[in-house]
Structures
1.
Amino acid sequence: MNTRRDEAIALATAVAEDTRGAKADVAVCVPFPHLEAVGAALGGTHVAVGAQDVYWEPQGAFTGEVSVAMLADYCSHVIIGHSERRQFFGETNDWVRRKLEAVLASTLDPILCVGELLEERLAGRMEEVLQRQLHALAGVNLSPRLTVAYEPVWAIGTGETATPEQAQAACAYIRKLLKGLCGQDAARIRIQYGGSVNAANAAALLSQPDIDGALVGGASLKAADFAAIVAAAG
């Protein structure tokens, strides 16, 4: 929940300029009110546009919610199950599953977030949490259009970052779980790391074999910082 309209346009324009020629795929996921303006600003550039949430019902009396069809007019990607949605708004694994099914049935590409709380990490329950979150998707026809973002909640906005080894171990476990859910297609599903990613730690994190990219939070609010992370992905 950052930026006013003009700020969002300026930031997106700077991101497009500063990441020109990037080898990595680049997308910005913006607040609902800015989707049309940012989409217009980024038209014809290499930067894709995404939303930060979606609701699974196609239409109806769900005041305040935004459907897949509504989003499809303005963007190509959408985040599902972000830790803040789970933590602050009570989003359950069942809700996440419903949202994912609705998005996969559309033209939008989903970015699915999973990850454990600090107390779960300290209790040695990281694998248990990831298994529960991903096994809730059993029976969903998972597609290589899916991106899974591992975001340990204890490393989001705290300045704490999982070590490259910790991040790799979690992402490798996610890959293993995905293989159980969708077989060989698991190798084609992107797995990102998200959790206080910045220019200083991006290269070490992105060099890990099971980390295909980054879901960037605070560092994405400064175009130069975000561009440095994109460069590290190349």
2.
Amino acid sequence: MAPTVAACQLAIADLSVETNAERVGDCVAELADAVDVAVFPEQTLTGFVPDDRIVDAALPRDSEQVTGLQSLADRRDTALVVGFVEADGDDCYNATAYLDRDGGLTVYRKRHLWGGEREWLTPGEELVTVDTPVGEAGLLTCYDLNFVDDSAALAREEVTALLVVGAWPAAYSENWRLLCRARALDGVRWVVAAGRTGERDVPDAPAATYAGRSLVARPDGGVHRALDRQPGTLVAHLDPETLATQRELIGVFSA
């Protein structure tokens, strides 16, 4: 049976943790029961501004908001992938939480920081894979897509998907689509990518407009399903036969 994924494309309220947590909850409540994995954008819970306010908004892993998502994943029997700025001691990280259907938690910390992130956040060190309803999946965050070495390290036969959270600038949305497709083809695997949409509109913070354009890329690099820039949820079935056929055709794991 083909697993079902959702890419939940949201506008984020930067620094408004409670608002964003409610938006995630509302989106999950509207998902069909058949959705196995739902992917949300980068920094969904906290948003991001490049100043000291992001330190105040950052959340530890055991925060009410993160543990609430663990409970939600368990109740709905739907794994969730949700970005947030993580507070850990004196450091903050651009983190992505994988919340499995039993309430378990795995966190990936973005390794490649972009722009103002570099001043306020600490880069992660480890690539992370998780056991999901779509198979073993690598977690990547936005600018990580540009780093071919990371993609190559995850190009293993057992890794059948990448789950990608993003907040890509609208001006470069074609790059986002191209990189998602390239990373799918690199490892002959599915890519499920959820992008932030809307704008950052915070007093005394740089304005930003986000691309949206969430998509599911096929193992041959084609686009299986995609959204434009409006908020919405993309739902797609990942046919195991499609993966098997492409891996047999391309042969990178049998050469």
3.
Amino acid sequence: MLGAVTRVDCVLTGRAVPFRGAERSAIQKRAADGSVRVGWLGLDGDEQADLSVHGGPDKAIHHYAFDHYARWAEKAPAHPKLSVPGAFGENISTHGLTEETVCIGDRFRLGTALVEVSQPRQPCWKQAHVMEWTTLPKMMVREAKSGWYYRVIEEGAVAAGDAMTLEARPHLDWPVARVFGLVMHKTAVRDVEALRAIAALEVLEAGWREMAKNVGEA
């Protein structure tokens, strides 16, 4: 519903550090103190180690629902990283917004910034490595609990406790979970018409549109 308000529980940033051998990563985020500037490429103080697959205007900010932590804690009840936000490399943590309720193209007033949902997140091996949980990325894909990214429409600032207000929802038919499922669940029955519609969804990041086209033509 337009005008709906969610509170930001935590704003997180991370620096690129040694991760696995010569590999570097900034997936391990920490809660930021106070207000953080939101620029075109994301939050001040946040880094990406491999700019060929992370960061950029269409992956400026990563949002992961803290709502999902209880589900993962059921699978790994003693995991030390599931008690506070940051286990999934997220920049924004909230309760009440999930892949089922957030749509591609949604625009949120995030603190004083304006951001737009650009694509689902695609889990990778780094998530498994940081959590020491080899099957986690596959589970995230299977359950469509992947998170999503924003592009920045207007720069500003955000802090924990700030409001996230839904200002626009132009694509009600395309929740993040639906797009993720149609493109990533390649063993499911293909809805060719839906995949063609996703491929034509201009607000969706170009790589995801190309994947939708390829899956639809397979």
